[in-house]
Design a protein that fits this description.
CATH architecture of chain C: 3-Layer(aba) Sandwich
Strand content of chain C: 15-25%
Oligomer: heterotrimer
Chains: A mainly alpha, B mainly alpha, C alpha/beta
Shape of chain A: globular
Number of helices of chain A: 11
Distance between the termini of chain C: 20 Å
Structural class of chain A: mainly alpha
Largest sheet of chain C: 5 strands, parallel
Number of strands of chain C: 7
CATH topology of chain C: Rossmann fold
Number of domains of chain C: 1
Number of helices of chain C: 5
Chain lengths: ~280, ~600, ~150
């Protein structure tokens, strides 16, 4: 399963990115690029010169890509969800370091803001994993996905909280504080300012790996009914695109409040209720 | 060097023997200890009066009065037998004290030479410094090898004294004040310890309960009162809130002191004793309260660390936070959590001492301990920056040790009563730690276009110590399954009857991840040769190598970068104002519960 | 393969333009003309760009800036001078403070005249530039192979 992921996830992720841009364009009354556009973009990037400010950036991005792939492989091999989350963090730290290494004002600010985003979503995603454990009795993705328990019925708050941080992780407005795919140019390109060519292409591919894993976590809430799960994933992603188009980028404080707020209120309360009613504290 | 060899020898020979007790005669060792204790009390009284620290004087008087009371009313008939011992946990602690302690001592030789070169105003008391350091190491060994609570107390107080003397080494007003602050807070703990001893002596005049193993085995009903009192002493020594002030203030001491006492060993004594009492605290409301003190400290101290730019203060608050996590695990006290706690102790000791020593070296070379001055450290001091990188990674990144311990703690808390509160605090605290470590890491690996390599003059002793610690950080992460099965699990089996471990497949995956992390940097020379580089994007302005450019209206400006510190959200004063009352309330709650038991 | 043609990313820079041509360039991104359907993205970052769309003429202040930005764009790259000011200095050509068109400092591949240049011309110019871009890429590959 992991090998299928390693090979197919970039394809799937790229297609999702392409569909994303197409739907966004239609929402804005435009025609939009072809669905395969992200693949053309990455292919073009590999044809360009690879210019960075310092060679260590390439090393950090290579590590970012490798560990993002490892994270996803672990997830789809059914391994421990907490380990997946920690590997996720490890991968993100590498891209942040790549931006820091350049010592450029824009990538520096982008890196700091990316860390803020990381700090904002981390509590909620850990509470999500804890929630899965409480309901299914296991941290292993394999067990959670195969479980027949309707997880969503026990974790509605956690699900809503996860959707909130999904917006942060997918870099959708209002939470795209560090870098985004759109024409936001206040930070130039923020995190990805000082990358080009093949290195930038690797970042794109890593983003595709990431998207597939994140949507995989959404699936876990509905593992008892795979068809329903796929529908929910589609609806959730459409919702993300919709939110992206209706909101503009907000201040980082709003990202922090949303991330921590959803963890403290939606996540904690949901789990506290679970604890009390089903486990007797 | 001899000390480390001795520790390792002890490990090798005692490996399979389980817990071994030594019957060492109680008297006259105890008489001698009592005499020394009174001598110390007199010394502290004199110093306190001389420096007009009257609260300290009062505390010394109270504690001495308690011990005098004990000695002359109950001390006569005491006959505890099994006074010294070692078990797997002691061996782990001994390894930490022996190996890391010796390494730091070696480092200190070179460091103190430079220190006095930079600070000619400080009186050169180096012989005194090393004398106290070795007394301290001896006291630590005594502490972890003592089964007799009276003896543990004696060694405990010696560590307090050593800390007091070493913090005040520079003899400046700031150093003296901070030394007395540390003394006062630790004395508070000492008083609690003394009360616990009196309680135990009155409960069992034959002295049997003074033996730690007997006390713990006698169950919660009997032991909860001394457990809470001694855990309070542990809280003060481990600088948990509201007692965090002394450890932050202790950072004025020379860096080896910070590395040795205030991150890897003395404060570990505080949590060591709480972990020892965990079987007694487990499941009790008082234990839960103490655990919550630790959890709140973890969260708040991590938050404060975001707002600090002084590197040693960041390390201090991070230490307080990690100790808080260990206390939280120990207070709730299930076997899974103790597994996590012991792992935390080991990994934190290694990584934190490495970081302190690195910061000390950076300070001596660059004259600053401010993180904002560590831009481009990887250009100015490449090997040192790489070691710091490993140290910081060891503090929060998978697959290194602290992450493993945090993971184990999450899994442990889930199954505990009211665990969700702890898990949530841990989730938030963990997120906060990622932020302040990562931004520091980013600072040191930024490749500035300026800066020349000033590393060459660092002494060989320092390099040896730093390299060994770096290697240890990585090795510990790789070999932790062995440490777990060899030492921690037998201990847990002996104390709790069941044991915890990380699942087999996870261990394999983590080993793979470490291997990847070790292989990937080999791509660096490959990229250095082939890659094309270009200056950073500065909107087209021409920028000189020291980052000056012509701003609007032709004014020359310099490009600078600064980390976020968020002092308005995570400021020290602000957060302490919330956390200190909360922790005081929790401690009072534990005390009230304990008083209820007594009545 | 010919991927540069399918995914050209723009860097749009205003040298000393009155903003007339700039508005027309941005109009290309609006739903009416929608150049994103060709895969064109207006990135603000030279390191990500393939096509340097420049308006306005060269004066003392922006001479160095234009050179720097051009240098920041990785190869292969093309320059499209939009508007008559960028092409030759336009109505300001004789002024003491204007050096002339953009080709005073950087090599231009496509000139799009007009004042202001119309979106249709701009798109036309960019499409032409893409052809030149592909030629440059082929040449780059040749050099790499023979190097």
């Amino acid at each position: 399963m992991a090998i299928i992921y390693l090979v197919l996830a970039p394809v799937l992720g790229g297609l999702i990115a392409g569909i994303d841009r197409r739907i966004t364009a239609r929402m804005q009354g435009r025609v939009g690029p072809p669905i395969l556009q992200p693949f053309y973009d990455v292919a073009k990037l590999f044809e360009k010169e690879d210019v960075t400010v310092t060679p260590s950036q390439n090393f950090y991005i290579l590590s970012y890509l490798v560990f993002m792939a490892v994270t996803g492989a672990l997830f789809f091999a059914g391994e421990d969800l907490l380990l997946v989350i920690f590997a996720f963090t490890l991968a993100h730290i590498f891209i942040v370091l790549g931006a820091y290494a350049a010592f450029s004002p824009y990538s520096y600010v982008g890196a700091e803001r990316e860390l803020i985003a990381l700090m904002a979503y981390e509590p909620m995603i850990i509470l999500t994993a804890v929630g899965f454990y409480l309901v299914t009795g296991s941290f292993y993705v394999g067990d959670i996905a195969a479980s027949q328990i309707p997880v969503i019925l026990y974790l509605p708050g956690v699900f809503l909280g996860f959707l909130t941080i999904l917006t942060i992780k997918l870099r959708k407005s209002p939470f795209d504080i560090s870098t985004s795919h759109h024409a936001h140019q206040e930070l130039v390109k923020g995190l990805t300012t000082e990358f080009s060519g093949a290195t930038l292409g690797k970042i794109e591919i890593a983003h595709w790996y990431e998207t597939v894993v994140l949507l995989g976590i959404v699936y876990l809430f509905f593992g008892f009914n795979p068809l329903l799960a796929l529908v929910v994933i589609a609806v959730a992603y459409l919702l993300e695109i919709f939110i992206d188009n209706t909101f503009s980028r907000m201040k980082w404080q709003m990202t922090m409040k949303s991330g921590w707020g959803s963890a403290a209120i939606l996540g904690f309360l949901n789990l506290a209720v679970l604890y009390y009613f089903y486990l007797g504290v | 060097m001899v000390i480390s060899a001795a520790s390792i020898y002890l490990l090798a020979t005692s490996y399979a023997r389980g817990t071994v007790y030594y019957t060492v005669p109680f008297e006259p060792a105890s008489q001698v200890m009592f005499a020394i204790e009174m001598g110390i009390a007199l010394l502290l009284l004199w110093l306190g009066i001389r420096f007009k620290q009257y609260i300290a004087v009062a505390l010394v008087l109270v504690q001495s009065a308690l011990m005098l009371f004990y000695e002359f009313t109950m001390g006569m008939g005491m006959e505890p037998v099994k006074n010294l011992f070692f078990d797997q946990f002691s061996i782990i602690m001994a390894m930490i004290i022996g190996i890391i302690g010796s390494l730091i001592a070696v480092y200190a030789v070179s460091y103190m030479k430079t220190y006095h070169g930079h600070h000619p105003e400080v009186r050169d008391r180096r012989r005194f410094f090393f004398f106290v350091t070795f007394i301290f190491l001896a006291a630590m060994f005594g502490l972890v090898f003592s089964n007799n609570l009276l003896w543990i107390f004696f060694f405990w107080e010696i560590t307090t004294l050593a800390s007091f003397l070493l913090i005040g080494y520079a003899e400046s007003e700031e150093a003296t004040n901070n030394a007395f602050l540390a003394l006062k807070m630790n004395l508070l703990g000492g008083i609690a310890f003394a009360v616990a001893i009196i309680y135990l002596a009155s409960a069992d005049p034959a002295g049997g309960l003074l033996e730690l193993d007997t006390l713990i085995a006698s169950g919660q009903a009997v032991a909860i009162v001394p457990a809470v009192l001694i855990s309070f002493a542990g809280l003060t020594k481990a600088a948990q809130m509201p007692f965090s002030g002394w450890l932050v203030g202790a950072m004025v001491a020379p860096t080896p002191v910070s590395a040795l006492l205030h991150s890897s060993t003395m404060v570990k004594a505080g949590v060591y004793i709480i972990v020892r009492f965990a079987p007694v605290l487990a499941g009790s409301l008082a234990g839960m309260s103490i655990g919550l003190v630790g959890a709140v400290t973890f969260l708040v101290a991590s938050g404060i660390a975001i707002s600090q730019s002084n590197a040693k203060k960041v390390l201090a608050y991070s230490t307080i936070a990690n100790l808080g996590l260990i206390v939280a695990c120990a207070g709730v006290g299930t076997y899974k959590l103790i597994w996590a706690a012991i792992l935390l102790i080991i990994f934190h000791a290694i990584a934190k001492s490495l970081l302190f020593l690195c910061v000390g070296t950076v300070e001596h070379r660059t004259g600053s301990r401010d993180i904002e001055d560590m831009d481009g450290l990887i250009v100015r001091m490449p090997r040192l920056a790489a070691m710091m990188f490993v140290g910081i990674a060891g503090m929060f990144l998978a697959p290194f040790g602290m992450l493993i311990s945090k993971w184990a703690a999450i899994e442990g808390f889930i199954d505990a009563p009211f665990g969700i509160i702890f898990v949530t605090i841990l989730a938030f605290g963990g997120a906060v730690t990622v932020f302040f470590w990562a931004k520091w890491m980013g600072k040191i690996i930024s490749v500035t276009p300026y800066g020349e390599n000033v590393e060459g003059t660092i002494s060989r002793e320092k390099w040896t110590v730093l390299s060994i610690l770096t290697v240890l950080t990585v090795l510990a992460a790789l070999l932790f399954p062995l440490i777990s099965s060899g030492l921690i699990e037998p201990y847990l089996l002996g104390v709790f009857g069941e044991t915890a471990r990380l699942a087999q497949d996870n261990i394999i995956i983590m080993a793979l991840m470490i291997s990847l992390l070790l292989i990937l940097p080999f791509s660096l020379p490959f990229y250095a040769k082939g890659g094309k580089t270009m200056p950073a994007y500065m909107c087209g302005r021409t920028v000189t190598t020291d980052l000056k450019f012509a701003g609007s209206a032709g004014i020359e400006r310099t490009m600078t970068t600064r980390n976020y510190y968020f002092t308005e959200y995570f400021g020290e004063g602000k957060l302490l104002r919330i956390a200190n009352p909360v922790c005081i309330l929790l401690i009072l709650l534990a005390g009230a519960i304990m008083a209820g038991v007594v009545m | 393969m010919a991927y540069l043609k399918k995914s050209p990313w723009l860097l749009h820079y205003d040298a000393s333009s009155c903003n007339g041509c700039d508005i027309e360039v941005l109009a290309c991104l609006t739903p009416l003309y929608d150049v994103e359907r060709f895969g064109i993205i207006n990135t603000g970052n030279p390191k990500h760009a393939d096509v340097f769309v420049i308006t306005g003429g060269i004066n003392d202040l922006n001479r160095q800036v234009v050179t720097n930005i051009y240098a920041q764009i990785p190869d292969p790259k093309v320059v499209v001078a939009v508007g008559i000011c960028a092409s030759s200095g336009g109505v300001f050509r004789e002024c003491y403070n204007v050096a002339g068109g953009v080709d005073q400092v950087i090599p231009v591949d496509v000139y799009v005249p007009g004042c202001a240049a119309r979106p249709e011309s701009i798109i036309d110019g960019i499409v032409k530039a893409l052809g030149i871009l592909e030629e440059k890429r082929a040449k780059m590959k040749e050099q790499e192979r023979s190097a």
